[in-house]
Design a protein that fits this description.
Layout: H1 2-19, E1 33-45, E2 48-59, H2 62-83, E3 88-99, E4 119-130, H3 136-143, E5 148-155, H4 158-163, H5 165-186, E6 194-200, E7 213-214, E8 219-220, E9 240-253
Antiparallel strand pairs: 1-9, 2-4, 2-5, 3-4, 5-8, 6-9, 7-9
Organism: Duganella lactea
Signal peptide: 1-21
InterPro entries: 26kDa_periplasmic_antigen, SIMPL/DUF541
């Protein structure tokens, strides 16, 4: 009886090995170098907002339009600083454009070559970077008394991104090991026969694309600014960001 048990156990081991063996007509894999791309990702709730506010004025008098823009931008800056003292502010994109009348044609059908501006458009943008997402609706509503909300974009702070690096690398390396195991199994080899030659965590070369950060597209909102008129607070959902990483491993089988 004891001998029969040994034979049965040996048969079971033999069957298990045969199940993972490569087809009889498969070429030998000794010394084979396999390039293995792998992928990992982590998700995190967005903790930073990038808000762009704007002001634009139009007037026949260029100086008058510019003066109103300068005054209202100053008021808008003061409002944002009061509502969110920790926000980072940056003015940008000051512009002045002439406004021409509709093009008219001469009797011969040719357009008038020289036209005189009938007005001037003057404007400026204010970029606000903040982590005070709980205050954001109130801050934006207060700013909209003077300025226009041009766009808003949510993302992760650099600090949060750095903290997620450990998780992202671990997830990517785990996926690499899983894929090596699957490849070894398909080749009829043991994982212990595989030796990792190179690991490229940049995913460079022709094997994989570089790291990508997926992020929700900015929401575009436009409204006509009204001087010091109470504005209802807008609703924002920060969403989440997915940080991706790709790795390429070169594995050689003994």
């Amino acid at each position: 009886m004891h001998t029969m048990k040994k034979l049965a156990a040996a048969a079971a081991v033999s069957f298990a090995l045969d199940a993972h063996a490569a087809p009889a007509d498969a070429p030998p894999t000794t010394g084979t170098l396999v390039v293995v791309p792998a992928y990992g990702e982590v998700k995190h709730v967005n903790d930073q907002a990038f808000v762009v506010l704007a002001i634009e004025e139009q007037d026949k008098d260029k100086a008058a339009a510019a003066s109103r823009v300068n005054q209202k931008m100053k008021q808008g800056l003061e409002i944002v600083k009061k509502e969110d003292p920790n926000a980072s502010l940056k003015t940008q994109g000051y512009y002045t454009y002439p406004v021409y009348p509709e093009e008219r044609l001469l009797p011969n059908g040719q357009p008038v070559k020289q036209r005189t501006p009938t007005a001037w458009r003057v404007g400026q943008y204010l970029q606000v970077t903040t982590t005070s997402l709980d205050k954001l609706p109130k801050t934006v509503a207060a700013a909209q008394k003077i300025l226009t909300l041009n766009s808003i974009n949510f993302g992760l702070t650099p600090e949060t991104t750095r903290q997620l690096d450990d998780q992202r690398i671990a997830a990517t390396y785990k996926n690499l090991n899983e894929r090596i195991g699957s490849i070894a199994n398909a080749m009829g080899r043991r994982v212990s026969d595989a030796v990792i030659d190179t690991i490229d965590f940049e995913g460079s070369g022709n094997y994989a694309q570089r790291e990508q950060v997926s992020m929700a597209a900015p929401m575009m909102m436009r409204a006509k600014a009204a001087d010091m008129v109470e504005v209802a607070e807008p609703s924002f959902e920060p969403g989440e960001t997915t940080l991706q990483m790709q790795v390429v491993g070169k594995v050689r089988f003994k």
